[in-house]
């Protein structure tokens, strides 16, 4: 029943009781008036906020995935860090370990209507022990980018884009230091006196005809490359771009695969890192 109906009912009671008069009428009038604030309070009471979980960190797997004390594996909503087989991926895990110390408590908050990904990882917003948002803290580094999978709230993703420092860079080449050898120090040499050889008169050599180089054979035409066949998604549940079988689904990380793979098609999971050598998750080989 709406607020308007409650108020109109109370006014009707007042009119009826007022016609009767007396002490009983005044008591009924006060009872009717007292019911209006209670009805109004019930009408504007806000809905309860989504519940959050407080758990302890057990293991940080990479820059966006970790395990907690109740046995769950948590995938952070809104971000995507480089894989562990790249230097940037190892930096991402080190940053996440600094923000999520093992044994410390963190707060997990779910997005309404979103619980797990296809690999049973729990998708959650994460508040660090220091009280900061983990996604916002990680997005400011080159090793982490915005995940466009559509699981996080649009307003939250928009905030991550504003805080992002630029495109994700998963290759961090470190050039080996080069040293220039110091010049050798030697004592100056004293030139020995030369004795002039007796002059001899030799006849000038007769001119010889120049040999003509043999003509080079024309290079054979290079064969035209055959177009690579488009990978077909099989009904077996394996992703067509990786060998051996990798489950087909969004954003699978190397720690969840656990073995080295060969990239035979589009690298949808970005397992090859930045060297594009056709091999992914090489640290598990």
TrEMBL record:
Residues 172-203 have a biased composition (Low complexity). Residues 164-258, 266-285 are annotated as: Disordered. Residues 267-285 have a biased composition (Basic and acidic residues). Gene3D superfamilies: 2.40.50.90. Residues 204-222 have a biased composition (Pro residues). InterPro entries: SNase_OB-fold_sf. This is Thermonuclease family protein. It comes from Pseudonocardia broussonetiae. The lineage of its organism: Bacteria, Bacillati, Actinomycetota, Actinomycetes, Pseudonocardiales.
């Amino acid at each position: 029943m709406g607020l308007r109906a409650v108020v109109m009912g109370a006014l009707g009671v007042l009119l009826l009781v007022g016609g009767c008069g007396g002490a009983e009428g005044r008591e009924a009038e006060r009872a009717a008036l007292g019911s209006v604030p209670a009805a109004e309070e019930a009408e504007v009471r806000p809905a309860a906020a989504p519940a959050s979980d407080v758990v302890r960190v057990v293991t940080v797997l990479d820059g966006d995935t970790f395990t907690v004390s109740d046995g769950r594996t948590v995938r952070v909503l809104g971000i995507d860090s480089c894989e562990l087989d790249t230097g940037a991926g190892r930096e991402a895990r080190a940053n996440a370990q600094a923000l999520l110390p093992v044994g410390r408590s963190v707060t997990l908050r779910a997005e309404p209507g979103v619980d797990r990904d296809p690999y049973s990882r729990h998708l959650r917003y994460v508040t660090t022990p220091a009280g900061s948002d983990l996604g916002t803290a990680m997005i400011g580094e080159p090793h982490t980018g915005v995940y466009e999978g559509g699981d996080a709230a649009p307003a939250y993703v928009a905030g991550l884009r504003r805080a992002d420092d630029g495109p994700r860079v998963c290759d961090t080449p470190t050039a080996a230091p080069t040293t220039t050898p110091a010049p050798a120090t030697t004592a100056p040499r004293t030139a020995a006196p030369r004795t002039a050889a007796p002059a001899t008169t030799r006849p000038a050599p007769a001119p010889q005809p120049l040999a003509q180089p043999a003509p080079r054979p024309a290079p054979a035409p290079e064969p035209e490359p055959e177009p690579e066949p488009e990978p077909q998604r099989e009904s077996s549940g394996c992703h067509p771009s990786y060998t051996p079988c990798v489950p087909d689904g969004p954003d699978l990380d190397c720690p969840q695969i656990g073995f080295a793979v060969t990239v035979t098609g589009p690298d949808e999971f970005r397992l090859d890192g930045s060297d594009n050598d056709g091999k992914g998750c090489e640290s598990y080989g």
